[in-house]
Design brief:
single chain; 1223 residues; mainly beta; Alpha-Beta Plaits; Immunoglobulin-like; 8-stranded mixed beta sheet; 74 strands; 37% strand; elongated
Length: 1223
C-alpha cells in the first residue's frame, strides 16, 4: 500500500515515513549501466562515464545492489546531510520559498530603477489548492521571475539573458548560486563599469525557483531526495511519499518530448508527464522563452561539475551551432574550479547521457538560444559552510555568458525597405544552418526586427528572407572577437500577382476537380480547382514558393516555383496513388534490411488489407531496420500508418529521410497516420525499431502499413542472376581433366556483382567388399614355429590363424564408419575365440613373430570375442568388428592390406573353430562402410577456388569450371559452386557439381575384313560414296544394340565401315567367354588399315570399366562372320591390345580367311548376320537385293553395289563356314 503524506488540519507541516536514503557510488560505469539502472527505476544522482555512477537508494536498495554483484560504496547518508546543516527543522543554510520571495521583493524595493518582479505562473500545488483541495494549502506557490535592466519598465531593443535554477527539488544549491549572481549584479550596479554596462544594455532575467512545491518538501527536510514536482499522478487528492506522484520538470519541455532518457512511468524519477508542457511551472518557463528574445541562458542543476550544451535528446546529436556553443562552454568551464583540482568539464549534453524534453534542447532547438546546464558541485545538498564557496566559484562563468553577445556576434535590424518597420525575417548562415540536427530557423524579433547570431570568428555568407519580400544575401561578413558585427537589412517588398493554372491527371490528361493547391509557409489560404481543373491564387507576392498539390486518390506533390510578373501560370499533374500495403505477402525487391534482424510481413492486426510490416525480433541494444530508396519525380508528402508497442521512453520506432530522423514513437500507440514533406530527387526512407537495455513492455516492436510516396520513377529492375547449366555431372577416368563453362547471366537492369567459391560437400559414403587375394598365405594358420596351412583358418589349442584382405579399393584418407566380417565356418565345437589386431605382414613375417602378433591382444584389445556356450553351427557367420578396428583399417589403407588374427582362447583340444580361407569354396570377406573426403582440390573455377565478376544488364560472364581426376581414386565426389551476389531475390545461388571417377580401359584393336580387302588394305568406297550412315547400324536383330553412337559427319576419309566391339570377361579361356560374360559393347569405325577407332575417327576405343579377370574381345560386322580373340588381351598402362590379322588369333577353325600371305581377315558372306554362311544368305537376302545400290548387308565387298561379284567371290567360296564366338 502506498504511504501517504497526510495533512493534519491547517498545520503547515507533513510527515513522511519510510527508510532513510543514502547515496552510493559504483565505480567505472558505462552507458549500459546507466540505462539499465534508469530503466529499472533507480534514482540516479550523478553519472560520469567510466568514472562514477551515484544512486539514491534505501538500505534495502543498497543490499539489493550488493546482491546483484555491484561493488557499491556509500558516499553520503541522509544523516550526514543533516549533520552538515545548522540544527533546525528547516534546511539550514538554504533559502525556503518564503525566504526567497521576501528577498526578491526586497531587491525590487531596494533597486526600483533596475529591478522588477513578475509572477509568471502558478505551481501545481497552487492549482490544486485554488481548485478546492485543502490538502495542498502549504503548496500554494507562484513562479517568480525578476527582471534586471535599466529602464526596467520599458521593453528596449536589448539582448535578453536568463538564469534559471532548481528544476529538481533536491538541488537547492542551484537556487543559492542563482541568487548569488543576482545579488552580485544589483549590488555592483553603478560602481562596477562592466556590471553597469551589462545592466544598461541587457535584459537579465532570474527565475531562481522553477519547482517551488518540490523545494518545500526538501527544505522542510521531509524528503531530502525529492526530485519532481507534486503532480497528483494517481488522482487520490494527496501527496504520496513513494515517488509515484510528480513529474520531472526537466523532462517536460516539448523538444523531442517523451524520447530517450525519460520515462512514461509515473513512479520513475524521470517521468516526463502525460504530455509536453503538461506542468504549469514548465508552461511558465515556455512562455518566458517564447515571448522574450533571449540570446543566452544558464539553468543550474547539481551535481557533477559539468558545463553542458545542446543537444542532449539522443546519442550523437550535433547542433548546427556546435562549434560556437562548445567554445562558450569551454570559456565558462575553465573558470569554475573542480573539487579535486582542475576545472569543470564542458561537453555536449548527450555525452553525459541522453535526456529528452529538457530546457536547453527546447531553448536552442525552438529559439536558437545558447542555453547551458551547469551541474554544480559534487553532491545535491552541500554542507552549509560550502555554499558560499560554490557560489563564488560560479560567478565568473555567469558573467562570461552575460558578456558573450558583445563580441563575435552578428547583429542588426531587419526592416521593411518602404515603411522602415521591423520585419520577422529568417537569418540564414551558410555553413551553420545547413549542418547538424534540425533546429527551427533563426528569426529576428517582432518588436524591433533585431537579431543576434553568436558565431566563431571568420567570414560568413548570410541570407535574410521573409514572406512577401525579396531575399537579400550578404557575402563574406566578417565576425571577430573585438566587437559585434552590425548588419542592418532593408528588405524590398515583392510585387503582388495572380497565379493561375490547372491540375490534371498525369496518365489521362483529364482535369481533376476539387484538387487543393497550397502555398507552403505563407499566410495564403489554400484554393481548390473547379470542374475544369482550374485554380486561381490572388495577391501572391513575387518570390520562390513551394506549392503543395493534392487530391483524393492521388499522390501529393510539392513543387518549387518562382513567381514573378512574367511567370504566373503553373500547371500540375498528379499521379494516382498506389499505397504500399504489403498485400503481396512478400517484400518487393526495392526493400532492403539492416540492423540485427530484418522486418517481416505479418497478418497481425494490419491497418489496411491482410498484411502489414513488423519490426524483427531483437535483443538489448539492437535495432531492426527497413529501408527503400526511390527517385521521386516531384516533391510531395510521404505518408504512412504506424503502430508501436514498446517500453515508453526507451524503445522507439523511428523514421528517417536520408539519414535524418523525422520523428520517433514509443509506448502503446495505436494505428495513426503521419506525413512528411520531401523534395524531388533520390531519397532513402528508413524505419528503425531501436531497443536499449533489458526491460521490455508490450509486444516490443513497431508496425508500418499503407505507405504513400510522392510520384516516383519505377526503379530499374535489380540484378537478376541466372546460371547455365544449373548443375554439372561429369564422368572421368582416373587421370583425366575436363573443363566446362558456367554462364552467369544478368536478367536485371542494374549491374550484377557476384563472387563465387567452391564448397566441398561431405565426402561420398561408400561400401566396399574386400577379399583376400587368390594367393598363398593371404589367409592361413601357424603353430608359432611353422606355417601349418596357407589357406584354411584354424583356431585350436596349438594353432592360431590370420585373415589378410586386399583394401586397395578403399581410398587412402577415407574415414571408416564400420567393418563387418563375413566368414564360413566349416568345423566347430563350442569355441572360445578372439579376432585380434595384426600389424605384421603375413606374407613376409616369420611364423614365430606372426604367432606372437596374433596372440598379443587375445584377452584385451581384441576386435571381437565370442564365447559360444552352445553348439555353433557350420555355415556363414557375420560380426561387426569393435575396438580399434576402424582406426587400424584407416591406418592400413596406405599399405593396401589389412590383417587380423583369429585365436582360440581355450588351451585344450576340446574346443575349436575352422574357417574357409582364400582357396576354399567360401572365402572370407569384409563389408567396409566408409566416407571419403578427397584431400586434394578436384574442382576449380577460373583456375582457383574462388572468382568474382561484374555482369551488366543483359550480358553474361563465363566461368571455366575445371574437373580434375588426376590424383583421386575411383569414387563419386560432390561439391557446390556457391555464387553470392547483389540479387535481392536470390542472393545465394548454388550450382551442384558431381564428379564420377571411374576405371577405364583403352582398346588398341586391329582386324581386316575380306569383302573390302584389296592388296594390303581395305577399300573406302562406301565412305567415298557418302553412304555410310551417321548413326550406328546395329540397333536391329541380331545385335539389338541400344547404344546411341552418332556423328555429325564421317570424321575420317580412311574409314571403311562401322563395326560393333564387344568385351567379355571370364576367369577361363576364350571358350568360356559366353554372352553371359559380356561387360560392354561399343559401336566404332574400322579404318582401311584395320585399326578400330572411336567416333572421332582417330582415338582408341575407351570403355569405362575395370578388369580383374581375363578379357576377350568380339568384333561384329553387318555381313562378315563375327570373331573373338583366341587369347586374353594383353594390357600395358591401361591399354589392352589385340591384333586379329595374325594366324590363329581368332577362336575356332576357319573363323578367318588368309587374305594375302600372313594377313588374316573376317570372312565375308554372312548376309543375314547369323554367324554362318549358308543358303539363307543367298536365297533369303542376297537375291532379294541383287541389282540394288547403297548401304546394304547384301553388298559383301562394300563397293556400294549388290551384284554377282558379291555372290561369286565371297558367298560361294565361304559357303559352310561359321563363327567361333561362343554362343
Amino acid at each position: 500500500m502506498k504511504k501517504l503524506i497526510v495533512f493534519i488540519f491547517a498545520m503547515s507541516f507533513l510527515t513522511l515515513t519510510g527508510q532513510d536514503k543514502m547515496i552510493v557510488r559504483i565505480q567505472s560505469p558505462d552507458k549500459g549501466d546507466y540505462s539499465e539502472f534508469l530503466k529499472k527505476g533507480f534514482d540516479i544522482a550523478a553519472y560520469k562515464e567510466k568514472e562514477a555512477l551515484d544512486l539514491v537508494v534505501t538500505t534495502e536498495g543498497f543490499n539489493k545492489l550488493l546482491a546483484m554483484g555491484y561493488k557499491a560504496k556509500v558516499i553520503q547518508t541522509e544523516q550526514q546531510i543533516k549533520d552538515n546543516l545548522i540544527v533546525g527543522k528547516d534546511l539550514a543554510g538554504y533559502r525556503t520559498y518564503n525566504d526567497l520571495l521576501t528577498e526578491l521583493q526586497q531587491i525590487e524595493t531596494n533597486h526600483p530603477g533596475i529591478c522588477k518582479l513578475y509572477d509568471i505562473g502558478d505551481s501545481r500545488g497552487k492549482e490544486y489548492y485554488t481548485g478546492g483541495n485543502s490538502n495542498y494549502i502549504n503548496y500554494n506557490h507562484e513562479i517568480w521571475a525578476l527582471k534586471v535592466s535599466d529602464n526596467v519598465n520599458v521593453e528596449e531593443d536589448e539582448p535578453y539573458v536568463y538564469y534559471m535554477a532548481e528544476h529538481h527539488a533536491r538541488e537547492p544549491i542551484s537556487l543559492e548560486v542563482n541568487m548569488y549572481i543576482l545579488n552580485y549584479i544589483v549590488s555592483n550596479y553603478g560602481t562596477d563599469p562592466d556590471v553597469t554596462n551589462w545592466v544598461d544594455n541587457t535584459q537579465i532575467w532570474f527565475m531562481p525557483l522553477v519547482n517551488p512545491n518540490g523545494h518545500k518538501i526538501v527544505t522542510d527536510e521531509d524528503d531530502l531526495w525529492w526530485r519532481k514536482n507534486i503532480r497528483d499522478n494517481n488522482a487520490n487528492g494527496q501527496l504520496d511519499d513513494d515517488s509515484y506522484d510528480g513529474v520531472d520538470p526537466n523532462r517536460n519541455y516539448g523538444w523531442h518530448w517523451g524520447g530517450t532518457g525519460s520515462s512514461g512511468s509515473p513512479g520513475n524519477d524521470t517521468y516526463h508527464g502525460p504530455s509536453a508542457f503538461s506542468e504549469p511551472n514548465i508552461q511558465a518557463m515556455k512562455n518566458m522563452i517564447d515571448n522574450y528574445h533571449f540570446v543566452t541562458g544558464i539553468t543550474y542543476h547539481s551535481y557533477s561539475e559539468l558545463v553542458l550544451f545542446p543537444y542532449g535528446y539522443d546519442n550523437n546529436t550535433t547542433a548546427p551551432d556546435h562549434d560556437a556553443l562548445q567554445e562558450l562552454a569551454t570559456d565558462m568551464a575553465v573558470t569554475i574550479p573542480a573539487a579535486g583540482g582542475g576545472h569543470y568539464t564542458p561537453q555536449e549534453s548527450w555525452q553525459l547521457y541522453p535526456a529528452s524534453g529538457t530546457t536547453d534542447d527546447y531553448s536552442y532547438g525552438e529559439r536558437g538560444i545558447f542555453s547551458y546546464t551547469v551541474e554544480l558541485g559534487t553532491e545535491f545538498i552541500p554542507p552549509s559552510n560550502e555554499i558560499s564557496g560554490i557560489c563564488q566559484d560560479n560567478l565568473q562563468a555567469a558573467l562570461i555568458l552575460l558578456d558573450r553577445v558583445n563580441h563575435s556576434t552578428l547583429t542588426g535590424i531587419v526592416r521593411d525597405g518602404n515603411t522602415n518597420l521591423p520585419i520577422v525575417a529568417e537569418v540564414y548562415i551558410d555553413g551553420i544552418d545547413n549542418t547538424g540536427e534540425f533546429r527551427e530557423p533563426y528569426e529576428s524579433d517582432a518588436d524591433f526586427g533585431r537579431y543576434y547570431r553568436l558565431l566563431m570568428d571568420g567570414n560568413y555568407n548570410v541570407t535574410y528572407s521573409a514572406y512577401g519580400y525579396i531575399p537579400q544575401t550578404f557575402n563574406n561578413l566578417n565576425i571577430n572577437s573585438s566587437s559585434q558585427t552590425i548588419q542592418d537589412v532593408y528588405l524590398v517588398p515583392a510585387q503582388t500577382v495572380t497565379v493561375t493554372g490547372t491540375v490534371t491527371d498525369f496518365d489521362t490528361g483529364l482535369p481533376i476537380e476539387n484538387a487543393t493547391v497550397e502555398v507552403l509557409d505563407t499566410p495564403i489560404p489554400p484554393v481548390t480547382t473547379n470542374q475544369d481543373g482550374e485554380y486561381t491564387i490572388d495577391n501572391i507576392m513575387e518570390g520562390t514558393y513551394s506549392f503543395r498539390v493534392y487530391a483524393a486518390d492521388y499522390a501529393t506533390i510539392i513543387e518549387e516555383n518562382s513567381v514573378s510578373t512574367g511567370n504566373t501560370i503553373f500547371d500540375f499533374q498528379l499521379q494516382e496513388s498506389f499505397a504500399w500495403s504489403f498485400e503481396s505477402g512478400t517484400f518487393e525487391a526495392e526493400w532492403s534490411f539492416g540492423g540485427n534482424a530484418p522486418w517481416f510481413i505479418t497478418t497481425e492486426n494490419p491497418y489496411d488489407g491482410a498484411y502489414c510490416s513488423q519490426s524483427g525480433d531483437i535483443g538489448d541494444y539492437q535495432t531492426s531496420e527497413m529501408e527503400i530508396t526511390l527517385n521521386l519525380t516531384s516533391g510531395g508528402d510521404i505518408s504512412f500508418f504506424r503502430k508501436v508497442s514498446s517500453e515508453s521512453g526507451w524503445d522507439f520506432l523511428q523514421f528517417y529521410i536520408d539519414g535524418t530522423q523525422q520523428e520517433q514513437w514509443s509506448g502503446e500507440l495505436d494505428w495513426a497516420e503521419v506525413s512528411y514533406a520531401v523534395t524531388s530527387g533520390t531519397h532513402t526512407f528508413k524505419w528503425v525499431y531501436d531497443k536499449d537495455a533489458s526491460v521490455s513492455n508490450g509486444s516490443d516492436c513497431g508496425w508500418i502499413d499503407y505507405i504513400i510516396f510522392p510520384p516516383y520513377e519505377e526503379p530499374p529492375a535489380p540484378p537478376d542472376i541466372e546460371t547455365s547449366p544449373e548443375s554439372f555431372e561429369v564422368t572421368l577416368t582416373s587421370g583425366e581433366i575436363q573443363n566446362e563453362l558456367l554462364a552467369v547471366s544478368n536478367l536485371g537492369e542494374t549491374d550484377l556483382d557476384f563472387s563465387a567459391q567452391v564448397v566441398y560437400l561431405v565426402g561420398s559414403k561408400s561400401t566396399a567388399t574386400v577379399y583376400p587375394l587368390n594367393a598363398a598365405n593371404w589367409t592361413g594358420t601357424t603353430d608359432g614355429s611353422t606355417f601349418t596351412d596357407n589357406s584354411e583358418v584354424r583356431g585350436i589349442d596349438t594353432e592360431d590363424a590370420w585373415f589378410m584382405f586386399d583394401v586397395s579399393s578403399i581410398p587412402e584418407g577415407a574415414t571408416i564408419n564400420s567393418i563387418e566380417f563375413y566368414g564360413y565356418v566349416n568345423y566347430t565345437y563350442y569355441p572360445y575365440w578372439s579376432m585380434t589386431p595384426v600389424s605384421n605382414d603375413p606374407l613376409t613375417t616369420d611364423a614365430a613373430t606372426l604367432y606372437a602378433d596374433i596372440n598379443a591382444e587375445v584377452s584385451s584389445g581384441y576386435y571381437l570375442y565370442e564365447n559360444e556356450s552352445s553348439s555353433y553351427p557350420t555355415g556363414w557367420h557375420n560380426y561387426t568388428l569393435e575396438g580399434t578396428a576402424n582406426a587400424d583399417l584407416e591406418a592400413a589403407l596406405s599399405q593396401g592390406w589389412f590383417a587380423m588374427g583369429m585365436a582360440s582362447r581355450d588351451n585344450s583340444t576340446t574346443y575349436y573353430i575352422n574357417w574357409d580361407g582364400w582357396n576354399e569354396t567360401n572365402p572370407p570377406y569384409l563389408m567396409v562402410d566408409y566416407t571419403y573426403n578427397p584431400l586434394n582440390v578436384w574442382l576449380t573455377i577460373d583456375g582457383s577456388q574462388s572468382t568474382t565478376g561484374l555482369v551488366v544488364s543483359g550480358e553474361n560472364q563465363n566461368i571455366v569450371v575445371g574437373f580434375d581426376a588426376t590424383s583421386i581414386p575411383v569414387d563419386t565426389y560432390y561439391a557446390d559452386i556457391q555464387l553470392s551476389s547483389n540479387d535481392p531475390v536470390d542472393p545465394l545461388v548454388t550450382v551442384s557439381c558431381t564428379l564420377h571417377v571411374i576405371d577405364a580401359i583403352s582398346l588398341d584393336l586391329k582386324a581386316m575384313m575380306e569383302g573390302p580387302f584389296v592388296s594390303n588394305h581395305m577399300n573406302t568406297n562406301l565412305n567415298t560414296l557418302g553412304i555410310i550412315p551417321l548413326d550406328q547400324p546395329f540397333s536391329t536383330a541380331p545385335w539389338n544394340y541400344t547404344g546411341t553412337e552418332s556423328v555429325a559427319t564421317i570424321p575420317n576419309a580412311n574409314i571403311t565401315d562401322w563395326v560393333l566391339v564387344e568385351l567379355r570377361e571370364t576367369t577361363g579361356d576364350a571358350s568360356a567367354a559366353t554372352p553371359a560374360t559380356m561387360i560392354g559393347r561399343q559401336a566404332a569405325f574400322i579404318l582401311n588399315t584395320g585399326e578400330i577407332v572411336g567416333l572421332d575417327g582417330v582415338s582408341l576405343l575407351r570403355f569405362d570399366i575395370s578388369i580383374t579377370n581375363n578379357l576377350f574381345v568380339v568384333v561384329w560386322h553387318r555381313n562378315h562372320i563375327p570373331i573373338i580373340s583366341a587369347n586374353p588381351l594383353s594390357e600395358t598402362g591401361g591399354v589392352y591390345t589385340y591384333d586379329f590379322t595374325g594366324n590363329g588369333q581368332s577362336l575356332g577353325t576357319e573363323s578367318q580367311n588368309e587374305l594375302v600371305s600372313g594377313v588374316w581377315g573376317m570372312i565375308s558372306g554372312d548376309v543375314n548376320a547369323d554367324g554362318y554362311v549358308n543358303n539363307n544368305d543367298k536365297s533369303g537376302s542376297w537375291e532379294t537385293h541383287a541389282g540394288e545400290s547403297g548401304f546394304t548387308q547384301s553388298d559383301l565387298n562394300l563397293d556400294g553395289q549388290v551384284d554377282n561379284k558379291d555372290k561369286d567371290d565371297y558367298w560361294l567360296p565361304n559357303l559352310g563356314k561359321g563363327t567361333g564366338v561362343p554362343q
